[in-house]
Design a protein that fits this description.
Helices cover 40% and strands 18% of the residues. The protein starts with a helix and ends with a strand. The protein is of the alpha+beta class. The longest helix has 38 residues, at 917-954.
Length: 1248
């Protein structure tokens, strides 16, 4: 055996660092390695076909049926249908089979059509032409025929057909620009880098001659992670190994931009591409309403079984009397009767189950799904939630959680990009304790780019030949300009004073101010910020040939995934140093003297959320090797050994208190020998295929130590518009808001004050590492618990419902290190006590700030609250990839379509453009969603109780003979046609209170909190209401039919007429009850409600008025007409409907008058408003005062035609409840209009 083959087999199949199971080897171009190299072992990989469809022509029917009958409800009705087919049941199998067939057919058609569309999309994608290299020539073939190892050429604006390792491009620097909008929604151009040893190959012949193998990990769904290495064989046997990362992998679905062409080798194909692996759906979340609905179904299933058992038992008790036994022609021998007694009883039990099975509504599932699906469009159509700046509107990724938006008790929000704009602006930098700010005010005028320096060192000898004058300065004193930002209603101006270790020089008696040149340390700081980043310069190829003067005047457009880096580079540009470009691994900057400095980029130590810093290693033109590092102060300060640490730390803390984002900058100088050792260590870590991240982290830790501190920067991230109003509204709604951020405590606390999470009277409690260092964790937690529970004196008070009147306004601040100690299990197993104590403290705080949080810690916090004993509904909102973990963990995840990519939006349940839109999403849409679907669920159970309980009562009057009360057609169509559409439209359109009022009065959200409309008390009320109405239907008709004079000719009505009368009262009662509950009438409601009643009448006339030839018997012939021909029957129907509806009407009137809720007060006020306004303006001439502002004189804005077409729903009576506040009283304050209501924040103001 060849030695190379033996070595390959040993390496591949023996245990080692790179286990063959976890990695794959790809032969570039299917070319065998040179002789003596690793032996060629071909491997089988899938082809490049994408299959997103679920079914085929042959398996559609069985597979779809199997999936549908996995649902418990469908399976239950299938069993009922089979029982009807097997045994002799009182009802036709059609009564169960037809509704089930309707549900199964509609679902199958929907899923089949969707799958057919997926088949079409798959075929179009798989048949796309692709160019690949074969024998040094370009060959064109279909995408589905690509194989792993093929070398592919992709041109500009083409989509990558599979996951490719980037070999070379038409650009000289071996880069290309790519958009990944179809993968993660990011439309910005991303830069990818070719392999260092192959980027010079530009022609097909050069690429085809490449001998290389790629070793990489098995397919993984993570779009932003890839580990591999490429071994390039030249003329010698030993290959050159280069590491491969995510920056070298071009993903399928991404598009090539601003690059003529690229060459790449197919690495993952077909269903193994990262795009295909991300097709997998997220874990299913279930709402509280769905859980309640399932519990109610179990209750009704128990009721169904109880009814069947009771009737089966009473039947045999009834038949125990010889005179009530079966007739002689049905009797069997005594031995047969005794032998089959159990079988007969079981058969009768099943027959009663079939007779009463309609108490479980099969159509409720279909209606609920339709309501959720159609209702989600109201959110996406909301023009108030459309952001014109970004051109984005809300997105619904799943409609299963619509109602959960109305049950949120905790909101966990990120800070940067969520509460703030993520639009960074460079404010200042502190170097060696001295402050530099780009903007200066001289004589009241803002001077931009005044030599780039605002504050200078005033040490002796500073003035001299290197000094430059600041023109127009008539005083030696400078007022330093800094941005104003709003902290609540107070505007703060952050200014520097002479005491801030800043002083200025005045040249002998002259009124002109002289600025000295920058010392060497300051120049090093500016160079560090110009070099330590991953910023790209747009159109950097156009710099060649420009003169120095042109370069200084040419504006640079910087592109980066991090807004902080762009702000720092732009800020340093205003201070005199301009980053130009990265070309051929050399970084070019333009200094203050307009000279171009070139630094060779040796290494980049990328930023990650664990290290919280990044570094670069560069070589200057003089051959000096520097490491420049920037990062969070908590990450940099422990690693510095020199520098003015105390002065810079003081400045950092002050800027953090003022709400500015701070970064520290440090450097280190290496000798060539030291760098060679570090380079070898980094290369070994980067070439590792197993545990690469861990090994890189260890290498970075060894490199980034013993640094020299240069200074710090301050960047401002403005608060988003209406962020403070949104948080204030959420807190009034009883929702607790927590801020989870990676920023330092002072910066995050300042933002919390600015957005009104913390208020002036909020008593701040700290649970930080500094506190724990002074006291033990147990003592700190115990002291905090005593503080927050001082009034109650107990550790068991439940405050999840929001702030109570007697609760102090406490705010808690905790950092990541303290949280780790709380969550860390102790040796004595007492960590659970710490968690409970921590939770009790949090429950009694109005707001909580968690700072210095890692992404996984954010998810831990959400999970901790979610799994607490109260099981509150949680919502997480964020905009970045570091927020994905908590978004997936929360009951409801919301992504903000921000500037840090769309990973959060892609992984969320809903996405919104700005944080301010969360207010309307929860307080309005969430409120409506929950109320509507709660009414739908309760109404479905109510109308089915009304439907089936008379059937139960009827058995007591027919000797438990399983005689049905209703005709087969009525049994079949009751839930499908007669009563289904009104409740569906009600659950889509009902507005029990105006949308604007829900926003103005956030406390109305508390009326529906904690699943208020689906509690057991409400459920029992609806059930007993259904039982009462059913008894009225049955016994009212029974007493009516006892009178022999019901018919004018003296004839008695039969059992089918009796059942038809009961069914007529039933249909009218349940439909009219829904009409009485409807407060928001539209023409569609009228059409559906009255149309459903009309349809029932027309159907009954046709069903009983025509001899249908396909029926073997027609027991309903002329029954409906006979009933309508009787005057007492008409009177009985009207009276029974009134009697059935009267108790519910009286109950609502009494509750509204004696114990009204906040919502009912608003509804009463709207009625008073209509009565009052009608005294002055005829109703017919009234205009609907929609979108009215607080200013009564303002005219309502015009609505766009597109929105009108989308909604199509106008208020029937022209009254918009949105202009009514909650009523706490009326006042006579003058108003501009002649007769109107103005909202003042505390009640209604009228003026006539």
């Amino acid at each position: 055996m060849d030695c190379s083959l033996l070595r390959t087999l040993v390496n591949r199949y023996c245990a080692g660092e790179e286990n063959w199971v976890d990695n794959r080897t790809i032969y570039v171009g299917h070319r065998e390695p040179p002789p003596g190299a690793e032996a060629y072992i071909p491997q089988r990989y899938p082809d490049n076909r994408i299959v997103s469809s679920k079914y085929t022509f042959w398996n559609f029917v069985p597979k779809n049926l199997f999936e549908q009958f996995r649902r418990i409800a469908n399976f239950y009705f299938l069993i009922i249908f089979l029982v009807q087919l097997i045994i002799d049941t009182p009802t036709s199998p059609v009564t169960s089979g037809l509704p089930l067939l309707f549900v199964i057919t509609v679902t199958a058609i929907k899923q089949g059509y969707e799958d057919w569309l997926r088949h079409k999309a798959d075929n179009a994608m798989n048949q796309c032409p692709v160019h690949f290299i074969q024998h040094g020539k370009l060959v064109r073939k279909q995408s589905r025929k690509l194989r792993v190892g093929d070398i592919v050429m992709v041109k500009e604006d083409e989509t990558f057909p599979c996951d490719l390792i980037f070999l070379s491009s038409s650009r000289g620097d071996g880069t290309c620009f790519v958009t990944t909008a179809s993968l993660d929604g990011e439309s910005s151009h991303k830069t990818y880098y070719a392999v260092q040893d192959t980027k010079a190959f530009r022609t097909e012949q050069e690429i085809d001659a490449l001998h290389a193998t790629i070793e990489c990990e098995q397919p993984q769904p993570d779009l932003y992670k890839f580990v591999g290495r490429i071994n390039v064989y030249h003329d010698r046997n030993e290959p050159i190994a280069r590491p491969l990362g995510s920056e070298n992998l071009l993903l399928r679905g991404a598009t090539l931009k601003n690059t003529e062409k690229i060459f790449g080798v197919a690495t993952y194909t077909g269903m193994e591409t990262k795009m295909a692996l991300n097709y997998q759906a997220k874990s299913q979340k279930r709402s509280a309403v769905e859980k309640s609905m399932n519990v109610f179904l179990i209750v009704y299933l128990c009721i169904l079984i109880s009814k069947a058992l009771i009737n089966t038992t009473l039947k045999y008790v009834w038949q125990s009397d010889p005179f009530r036994d079966e007739p002689w022609y049905n009797q069997k021998t005594e031995s047969e009767r005794k032998r089959n007694l159990f079988l007969r009883a079981f058969t009768d039990f099943l027959a009663f189950m079939v007779l009463f099975n309609y108490i479980i509504p099969v159509s409720m599932y279909v209606t609920v799904e339709m309501q959720k699906f159609l209702g989600s469009y109201f959110l996406t159509w909301d023009e108030e939630m459309f952001d014109e700046d970004t051109g984005e509107g809300p997105l619904v990724n799943t409609s299963d959680l619509n109602e959960e938006l109305g049950q949120v008790e905790y909101v966990f929000t990120d800070k940067t990009g969520t509460l703030t704009e993520n639009n960074m602006e460079f404010i200042e930098c502190c170097i060696e304790g001295h402050v530099y700010i780009p903007h200066v005010i001289c004589n009241g005028q803002i001077l931009h780019d005044c030599t780039g320096i605002d504050m200078i060192d005033s040490s002796p000898g500073a003035s001299g030949k290197n000094s430059t004058k600041c023109p127009g300065a008539s005083s030696y004193y400078f007022n330093v300009f800094s941005k104003l930002y709003s902290r609540g209603k107070t505007c703060l101006c952050c200014s520097l004073r002479p005491s801030d270790n800043v002083s200025l020089l005045r040249s002998g008696g002259s009124s002109d101010l002289q600025l000295v040149s920058i010392p060497e340390r300051e120049e090093l700081f500016f160079r560090a910020l110009c070099l330590c980043h991953t910023v790209q310069v747009k159109d950097d190829d156009n710099l060649d040939g420009l003169k120095k003067s042109q370069l200084s005047r040419r504006p640079c457009i910087y592109i980066s995934s991090s807004p902080d880096e762009v702000a720092l580079v732009e800020g340093i540009q205003r201070l005199g140093y301009t980053y130009l470009r990265l070309k051929d691994n050399f970084m070019e900057i333009l200094n203050r003297e307009n000279d171009i400095e070139r630094f060779e980029l040796l290494e980049t130590l990328s930023f990650d959320s664990v290290r919280r810093r990044m570094s670069v290693i560069v070589k200057s033109a003089t051959g000096d090797i520097f490491l420049f590092c920037k990062g969070a102060d908590s990450s940099i300060f422990p690693r510095v050994k020199e520098g003015k640490i105390d002065q810079i730390r003081s400045r950092v803390e002050r800027n953090a208190v003022e709400g500015l984002r701070t970064l520290c900058v440090a450097y280190k100088k290496f000798t060539h020998k030291e760098y060679d050792f570090l380079h070898k260590m980094l290369q070994n870590s980067m070439l590792a295929l197993q545990d690469r991240e861990k090994k890189l982290a260890e290498a970075y830790d060894k490199i980034e130590k013993d640094l020299i501190l240069l200074g710090a920067t301050a960047v401002e991230d403005r608060l988003q518009e209406k962020a403070a109003d949104t948080i204030e509204a959420l807190q009034k709604a009883g929702i607790k808001v927590w801020v989870l951020t990676g920023d330092k405590m002072e910066t995050a606390a300042a933002t919390c004050y600015a957005c009104k999470l913390f208020r002036r009277n909020t008593q701040i409690l700290e649970l930080t590492t500094k506190k724990i260092e002074e006291q033990s964790l147990h003592d700190v937690l115990f002291d905090l618990s005593k503080t927050v529970l001082r009034q109650s004196g107990s550790l068991t008070r439940d405050s999840f419902s929001g702030l109570s009147a007697d609760m102090h306004d406490y705010g808690l601040i905790i950092d990541g290190a303290a949280l780790s100690l709380i969550m860390k299990p102790r040796e004595d197993g007492s960590s659970g006590n710490y968690r409970e104590l921590f939770l009790e403290i949090c429950r009694n705080c109005s707001a909580v700030l968690c700072c210095r949080m890692a992404p996984l810690q954010k998810a831990q916090i959400v999970k901790l609250i979610k799994l607490s004993k109260e099981h509150p509904i949680t919502l997480a909102i964020g905009d970045g990839a570091n927020d994905v973990s908590m978004i997936l963990e929360a009951h409801v995840g919301i992504g903000v379509i921000g500037k840090e990519g769309r990973q959060a939006a892609r992984n969320s349940d809903y996405a919104i453009p700005k944080f301010k839109h969360l207010k309307k999403m929860l307080l309005v849409h969430g409120h409506f969603y929950y109320v509507r679907i709660s009414e739908l669920v309760q109404y479905f159970f109510y109308k089915n109780v009304c439907f089936i309980f008379p059937q139960f009562l009827y058995q007591f009057f027919c000797g438990f003979s399983q005689q049905p009360l209703y005709d087969t057609a009525y049994l079949t169509l009751y839930n499908i046609s007669f009563t289904s559409l009104p409740i569906l439209l009600y659950s889509l359109l009902e507005q029990h209170i105006g949308a604007d009022m829900l926003k103005r009065e956030p406390t109305l959200y508390r009326d529906i909190a904690k699943n208020a409309l689906l509690r057991w008390r409400v459920f029992i009320y609806w059930t007993f209401l259904g039982v009462f109405d059913a008894m009225v239907f049955f016994f009212g008709a029974y007493f009516l039919f006892e009178n022999t004079s019901v018919s004018s000719n003296g004839q008695m009505f039969g059992n089918w007429t009796f059942g038809t009368l009961v069914f007529t009262v039933l249909v009218f009662t349940v439909t009219l009850k829904l009409a009485l509950d409807t407060r928001y009438w539209t023409w569609i409601n009228h059409f559906v409600i009255w149309g459903s009643l009309l349809f029932y009448i027309i159907f009954s006339l046709l069903w009983g008025g025509i001899v249908w030839p396909f029926l073997n018997y027609q027991r309903m012939y002329y029954v409906f007409m006979q009933m309508l021909s009787s005057g007492p029957a008409w009177l009985g129907i009207i009276l029974l409907i009134i009697i059935s509806l009267l108790p519910d009407v009286l109950k609502k009137i009494l509750c509204r008058q004696l114990w009204p809720t906040a919502t009912e007060r608003i509804q009463n006020a709207s009625r008073q408003y209509r009565d009052h306004i009608s005294e002055f303006t005829p109703l017919a001439s009234m205009k609907s005062p929609r979108y009215r502002s607080n200013d009564c004189s303002s005219s309502p804005p015009r609505r766009s035609n597109s929105h009108s077409k989308k909604m199509m729903f106008t208020h029937w009576r022209g009254i918009d409840y949105s202009i009514l506040p909650s009523v706490f009283g009326y006042s006579n304050k003058p108003c501009n209009s002649s007769a109107s209501y103005c909202y003042s924040g505390s009640g209604l103001e009228t003026s006539v």
